């Protein structure tokens, strides 16, 4: 007869991360709690807390789960191509889970998976391409901040709602005080939810930082 699964068997770090992200995606950041997780996993509140200690630990589990999905770029890949692939993948992961960004706020992302999948290889590639360690870190930081800010600016999962809310706010402005915003809605609104705005900015940063051959 197979051994019955224990509470800790059900509440693995992977299961906790998946369930937490599901709550964030379905119900928003305000719905995430140890009790909500425990109910979905059918374990006790204490079991969840034993796995991740506090909210910071829980968010770290979620971040590590997502970071493990970042691509491993083959050695010898062109620096610019590798850089765009890495940060583009990070952008797609972050825009898929905006609730996680809300809760993490300005906390640093220093989990082993993120360091191994993104930070270390990005820096190593830049150094191998001819940058100093300081130059490589500066380039990384610029692209990371662009990616994080672009993902956090709006909820890209519901562009229609973002556009509607922005349209209502801009339509209420006094045209005499805000002539461009109130008079150019058709031109001003689309870039708010256009992913190409991010990708275009990323490519500009990559081109500006491309090491001299």
UniProtKB/TrEMBL annotation:
**What are the BP-aspect GO terms?**
negative regulation of DNA-templated transcription
Q: Which Gene3D superfamilies does the protein's record reference?
A: Homeodomain-like (1.10.10.60), Tetracycline Repressor, domain 2 (1.10.357.10)
Alphabetical list of InterPro entries matching this protein: Homeodomain-like_sf, Repressor_TetR_C, Tet_transcr_reg_TetR-rel_C_sf
Q: Which UniProt keywords apply?
A: Transcription, Transcription regulation
Asked whether the UniProt record includes Cytoplasm among its keywords, one would answer no
Q: What name has this protein been given in UniProt?
A: Tetracycline repressor TetR C-terminal domain-containing protein
Per the UniProt record, the source organism is Streptomyces lavendulae subsp. lavendulae
Lineage at the top is: Bacteria, Bacillati, Actinomycetota, Actinomycetes, Kitasatosporales
Q: Does the keyword Transcription apply?
A: yes
- Domain Tetracycline repressor TetR C-terminal stretches: 76-186
């Amino acid at each position: 007869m197979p051994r019955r699964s224990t509470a800790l068997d059900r509440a693995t770090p992977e299961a906790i991360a998946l369930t937490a992200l599901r709550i964030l995606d379905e119900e928003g950041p305000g719905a995430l709690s140890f009790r909500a997780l425990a109910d979905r996993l059918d374990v006790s509140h204490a079991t969840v807390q034993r796995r991740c200690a506090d909210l910071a630990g829980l968010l770290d589990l979620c971040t590590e789960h997502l970071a493990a999905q970042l691509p491993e770029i083959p050695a010898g890949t062109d620096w610019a191509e590798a850089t765009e692939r890495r940060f583009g993948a990070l952008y797609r992961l972050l825009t898929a889970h905006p609730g996680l960004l809300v809760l993490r706020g300005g906390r640093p992302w220093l989990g082993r998976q993120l360091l191994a999948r993104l930070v270390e290889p990005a820096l190593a590639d830049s150094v191998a391409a001819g940058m100093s360690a300081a130059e490589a870190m500066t380039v990384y930081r610029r692209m990371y901040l662009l990616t994080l800010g672009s993902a956090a600016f709006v909820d890209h999962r519901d562009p229609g709602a973002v556009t509607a809310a922005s349209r209502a706010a801009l339509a209420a402005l006094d045209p005499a005080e805000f002539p461009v915003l109130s008079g150019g809605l058709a031109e001003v609104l689309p870039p708010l939810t256009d992913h190409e705005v991010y990708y275009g900015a990323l490519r500009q940063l990559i081109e500006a930082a491309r090491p001299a051959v």
